[in-house]
């Protein structure tokens, strides 16, 4: 059996490779390979492709960088947005050259990212339908899960996978496959498709112990559990020996939970084996877990990108984040990080903007206060995620807005604030956050 797996291009106003890899999709690939299935893999978002070298598109810091992009026509729903709309990713002709070498395919798997990126998925589905008219197409991932009915209605595919585990995947695809696949004890992201890697992404845990109103993690990973630290280390070491990358990004939503019995044990193994990499936390860290000892350990373990999740200084809004962070927690975390040796340039703080009921002035007040502390301020624009509490609040609060349309769930347009004519203030908000 032969399977073609595709990570599609992105259609959006902006996109940046901040350690962006489809590790869940790559775990599916590992499962298929271990079942003796021939897998052909194409990643439109692979910046290590020689195309980038030919175009002179260089990396930025820590292996991150810009995607190749072309300007495209905006969908009608975005016509009033004063920004260019683009297609990010490798050009189609490279994909066409790739699939011309494949003589026979039994199934096509396409992963999906953000809900509002589905037009990139649609492009690839239509291309594959024309080139492989009789080959079944299966899609899965974030958009497929959050917008299951929309995907079934709008995309001409044979199956939309909406599951929460590898076991769910096996149960559903075995109804389609002539060759039955079985579960293996250890499934890891299958990085071997890539000729080279400058970074890898790792999850040491799944799910989250908190239940924030705006977050959709429970729909993807309902239960919180942490992997065995030896297993995580084995995954890192195996790939480090093959690719010799310099950077590792954690995809955990609660990375420092049970720090002493979980992440610390992993870091001790990394130190013992002298694996020389830098660590990054793009998903954000809960400040209350950063003690003085933890801060020192982070510095000694070469954590280069520290991102704290503060979200807001509004006491009234703390319940929306399961009371997982208070401003006093944040202050203590900053103090401990400075004691541990971190500078302002190394500490970032995420704050949310555009939440339902949230006032523009609340964000301004938060920024003004944070400017007194040694940290960089990063605005995380609110995106309505189907199935969350805030999504339902938003629908009731703004019944005239097309919130059920995935394109309107794009955080780049500040959908809820856009309805209140605050668009002209948004750029000033960002400028204020980044100014000294």
Short description:
The protein has about 425 residues and is of the alpha/beta class.
Can you put this structure into words, describing what you see?
The chain is of the alpha/beta class. It folds into 2 domains: 2-173, Cobalamin-binding domain (Rossmann fold, 3-Layer(aba) Sandwich), CATH 3.40.50.280; 203-434, Alpha-Beta Barrel (TIM Barrel). Helices cover 34% and strands 18% of the residues. It is built from 16 helices and 18 strands. A 6-stranded parallel sheet has the order 11-14-15-16-17-18. It has a 5-stranded parallel sheet with strand order 4-1-8-9-10, sandwiched between helices. Strands 2-7-6 form a 3-stranded antiparallel sheet. α9 (229-243) runs parallel beside α10 and α11 (292-300) packs across α12. The longest helix is centred in the middle third of the chain and has 15 residues, at 229-243.
Which characteristics define this entry?
436 residues; 2 domains; Rossmann fold; 6-stranded parallel sheet; TIM Barrel; alpha/beta
List low-confidence stretches: none
Look at the structure and give the CATH class of the largest domain.
Alpha Beta
- CATH H-level superfamily title of the largest domain: Aldolase class I
Number of domains: 2
- What is the share of helical residues? 25-40%
Rg, please? 22 Å
Inertia-based shape: globular
CATH architecture of the largest domain: Alpha-Beta Barrel
Our measurement of the CA-to-CA distance between the termini, rounded to an integer number of angstroms, reads 58 Å
- The overall pLDDT, averaged over residues, is 93
Please list the strands of the largest sheet in the order they lie side by side.
11-14-15-16-17-18
The secondary structure category is alpha/beta
> Hey, roughly how much beta strand do the residues contain?
15-25%
Task: Please outline the major beta sheet.
Answer: 6 strands, parallel
Q: CATH fold name of the largest domain, please? A: TIM Barrel
Overall strand count? 18
- Count, helices: 16
């Amino acid at each position: 059996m032969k399977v073609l797996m595709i990570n599609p291009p992105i259609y959006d106003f902006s996109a940046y490779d901040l350690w962006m890899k489809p590790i869940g999709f790559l775990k599916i690939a590992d499962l298929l390979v271990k079942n003796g299935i021939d897998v052909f893999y194409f990643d439109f978002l692979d910046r290590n492709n020689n195309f980038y070298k030919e175009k002179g598109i260089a990396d930025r810091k820590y292996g991150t960088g810009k995607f190749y992009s072309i300007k495209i026509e905006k969908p009608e729903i975005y016509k009033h947005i004063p920004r260019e709309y683009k297609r990010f990713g490798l050009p189609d002709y490279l994909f066409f050259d790739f699939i011309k070498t494949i003589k026979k395919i039994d199934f096509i798997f396409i992963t999906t990212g953000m809900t509002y990126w589905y037009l990139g998925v649609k492009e690839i589905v239509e291309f594959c339908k024309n080139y492989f008219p009789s080959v079944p197409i299966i899609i899965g991932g974030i958009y497929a899960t959050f917008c299951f009915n929309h995907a079934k209605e709008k995309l001409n595919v044979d199956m939309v996978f909406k599951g929460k585990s590898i076991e769910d995947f096996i149960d559903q695809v075995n109804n389609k496959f002539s060759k039955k696949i079985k579960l293996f004890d250890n499934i890891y992201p299958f990085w071997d498709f890539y000729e080279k890697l400058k970074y890898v992404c790792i999850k040491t845990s799944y799910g989250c112990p908190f239940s924030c109103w705006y977050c959709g993690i429970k729909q993807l990973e309902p239960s919180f559990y942490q992997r065995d630290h030896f297993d995580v280390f084995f995954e890192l070491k195996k790939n480090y020996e093959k690719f010799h990358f310099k950077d590792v990004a954690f995809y955990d939503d609660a990375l420092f939970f049970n720090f002493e019995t979980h992440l610390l044990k992993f870091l001790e193994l990394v130190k013992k084996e002298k694996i020389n990499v830098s660590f990054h936390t793009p998903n954000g860290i809960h400040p209350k877990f950063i003690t003085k000892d933890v801060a020192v350990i982070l510095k000694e373990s070469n954590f280069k990108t520290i991102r704290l999740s503060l979200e807001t200084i509004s006491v009234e809004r703390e319940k929306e984040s399961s009371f997982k962070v208070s401003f006093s927690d944040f202050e203590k975390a900053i103090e401990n990080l400075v004691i541990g040796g971190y500078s302002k340039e190394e500490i970032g703080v995420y704050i949310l903007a555009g939440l339902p009921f949230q006032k523009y002035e609340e964000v301004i007040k938060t920024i003004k206060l944070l400017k007194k502390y040694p940290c960089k301020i990063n605005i995380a624009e609110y995106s309505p995620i189907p199935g969350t509490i805030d999504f339902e609040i938003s629908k009731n609060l703004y019944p005239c807005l097309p919130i059920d349309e995935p394109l309107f769930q794009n955080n780049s347009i500040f959908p809820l604030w856009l309805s209140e004519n605050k668009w002209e203030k948004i750029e000033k908000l960002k400028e204020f956050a980044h100014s000294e």
